Amino acid sequence: xxRYLTLPMLRPVIVTVVVFRLIDTLKVFDLVFGLxxxxxxxxxxxxxxxxxxxxxxxxxxxxxxxxxVIFSALIFAICAAYGALDRRTGGAE
Amino acid sequence: MTRSRRATxxxxxxxxxxxxxxxxxxxxxxxxxxxxQADAFAMPPKLIFVPIWDHYAKVWGDAAFIKxxxxxxxxxxxxxxxxxxxxxxxxxxxxxxxVPARGAILAWLLLSYMLPEFLFVIPMYGLFQxxxxxxxxxxxxLVYQTFTLPxxxxxxxxxxxxxxxxxxxxxxxxGAKSWQILLRVYxxxxxxxxxxxxxxxxxxxxxxxxxxxxxxxxxxxxxxxxVAAYRGYASIDWGALSAAAITSILPMLIxxxxxxxxIVGGLSLGAVK
Amino acid sequence: MAAxxxxxxxxSFGNVPVVKDLSLTVNDGEFVVLVxxxxxxxxxxxxxxxxxxxISSGDMRIGGKRMNDxxxxxxxxxxxxxxxxxxxxxxxxxxxxxxxKIRGEGKAEIDRKVAEVAAVVGLSDxxxxxxxxxxxxxRQRVALARAILRRPGVFLFDEPLSNLDAExxxxxxxxxxxxxxxxxxxxxxxxxxxxxxxTMGDRIAVLAPLAAGHKANLMQYxxxxxxxxxxxxxxxxxxxxxxxxxxxxxxxxxxxxxFGNQQIDLPPSAARLTRIILGQRPEHLRLSPQESExxxxxxxxxxxxxxxxxxxxxxxxIGPMVLREARTGSAPSLGQSVQLSLDPNQVHLFDPAxxxxxxxxxLAADSRQGYR
Lengths: 93, 273, 372
Fold this sequence. Notes:
Distance between the termini of chain A: 25 Å
CATH architecture of the largest domain in chain B: Orthogonal Bundle
Number of strands of chain B: 0
Order of helices and strands of chain A: HHHH
Order of helices and strands of chain B: HHHHHHHHHHHHHH
Shape of chain B: globular
Radius of gyration of chain A: 18 Å
Helix content of chain A: over 70%
Helix content of chain B: over 70%
Radius of gyration of chain B: 23 Å
Number of strands of chain A: 0
Oligomer: heterotrimer
Shape of chain A: elongated
Number of helices of chain B: 14
């Protein structure tokens, strides 16, 4: 019952939630910065912590800007893909 | 055991587990803030102990922390003020002009939510240095508009849309101008919406770290940075750190508990509209 | 000087015309009802008087002055909305005093005027309450009081009784009519209910939707009597009166039509037609249980017994007929065959092409010939 009726109907919501959480976790900063600051020798580096380091530790604003712009383009692409997918399947949003 | 009973027990088990996982870190931190250094790191963990208030005393006596705390308060106040001063007339105008801007506002809102914070911090760093807004609460509140403004406009538009248009017409017939109608008719009716939006904005601003980190140095440090400051280079004062963390959570916790209904209502309304 | 005057007014929403070529005058102190089915433009016309709907062409005058583009608040009108549009966050006193406060009058002055008008409508004990705590009838009175305070030249009513229960409607109808008599101001009243129109108006404007193919909206503008007894076209004939007028299309043979065995001679202007539309109201059809020479045979399909009268639906060779007759004896039984005949003085004739009225006629058998 759950598998054949509830789950399929929940699919659009599940996809939406997954996309949102995906983007949320991709752009994580607070958690990583607070816990490890990027990790011993960048072992736990995330994109935004890298951006921070590049800009403020190494004073390389140009490169930092490039990093974050490319990253934003990636996120935008994910959103666009989700939007296109959503529109194609009838869209619940 | 019947199927539904099994499902209920399963759901409760998952909920309890999830709740525990969420609350456990906070409870643990609260424990550290009340224990001596030795008690805090004792293995196996000491569940029964004698609480000490030294850590809290230290944190509350620390001028830097107090300053950070109040900087957050001002940032939240200023951020909300800016968002409402711009957002309320904007939402009202959008409603009156019947422009189908709903899609555009929704896109703006989602975009502001999705984009990484440093996308705003990097360019603003140089700009703020040049204009003297660097390391100021005002500058912070300004940058916070990237997410408070679209959210406020979104929520206010939804609440204003709830007001029957006949009221606007009746007020017009009485000779009221647009701004008078907004002030005397729409705002009082949308008051719960304003409260919910303000609360949600405040929580978001209060917990913000990345932008504050990039755009402040020492004068405008917010409470999140003040807590992080307790993590020294050589050693970490766990007790003070925990006490500072708990202190920073407390206002929002009280806020959320008191305004539970408004927050849930506001969130769901934003979703439905 | 007329209170409201429309001269060849047209109103369009974008490219869609809603009102076309409307010419109508509301005289000073008159109670005019705009009535018609949905989409006929009655609310739009009312709102154009108020300034809430824009006029695309033609002239609209209020009190002799052209007011097409005037500010709604400067038009010397007051409006009672369908939903009453009371401000829920203010008390009754606040609602009533809203306009005065906007205009900048002093608090003492506002309180005095509010108390005065509250006494007129009988709401003096409710001034401190919020609209949410009032009944439907009380809310209507607040809306009325708010309108009175503006001392307008014209009162506008937008279907104010539609939201009320049927039992309240009759009482509220009387209240509004009484209100008109005491105030003596001009009133324009919009409704879709033809009973309201007939019972309340000095004059009725019957409107038809342009979307249904009509050339213009105004079908007829006259007193309830005129509209009822002399409908100028088929639309008005069918819209006014309940149960609806019986309407049949009959072939013209030799300058006359035949209602079963009954012959009706047509006037010369109508005799040229091949077909003609004939109508008679249910209360004018005559019933005789036995077969007689004149008339149309019909079988009783349905009987509605209202106590003092009965409404019969009959099936005949030329279509269903509805008849209304006072309960004198027992009602005819279902399936019973009865004879229907037309009242010669109450026949309405319409041109089948234009649906315009041709005239009322008397039977050929009756020696008095003539038409009204």
